[in-house]
Amino acid sequence: WEWVEDRFHDNYRGAPTDGSAWEIGKTENRVLRGGSWDSIPGCVRAAYRNMNAQGSCCSFDGFRIARTL
What we know:
about 70 residues; mainly beta
């Protein structure tokens, strides 16, 4: 699972349309995407979302380092 900046929402109503992170919300839970090495095949895709509390950790969760060239 890959941590992303977005807060978790039940659906996409009100989501930014410009591709930016959805940082406003009622919950502190953050989105995890894409599954992990231990996931079932249907979860291993970027469109699949899960959530976890901000600051929690698990051996299946990580992040991707990116930079602008």
